[in-house]
Amino acid sequence: MRDLVIMKRAENAIYKVAQYRASQSFPETGEKFIHEIIDFWLEYASLKISHPLRKSEILAKHHYSCIVFKDNWVIAFKYSDKEFRVYRFVWGGKLI
Asked: What gap in Å lies between CA 87 and CA 77, rounded to an integer?
């Protein structure tokens, strides 16, 4: 299994989204969101599949591969045999 590494920029983005969600409803929703996204990343880190580079010009220039979480969130990452490194966590609407 690959090690999951979350870069600071992605970590900050997740916490901002979690704080916003917690402020809009119950505080537990922020924590739940964090756990869901980390579980999602751990699942992808354990898979031995190859991912194409992102077609978005913004992310492609950094040679990121991407996956989508809950139809709206784009996760930009790089991977090797040993690591699954998450660089960005972006609202999909910002990439258009």
From this structure: 5
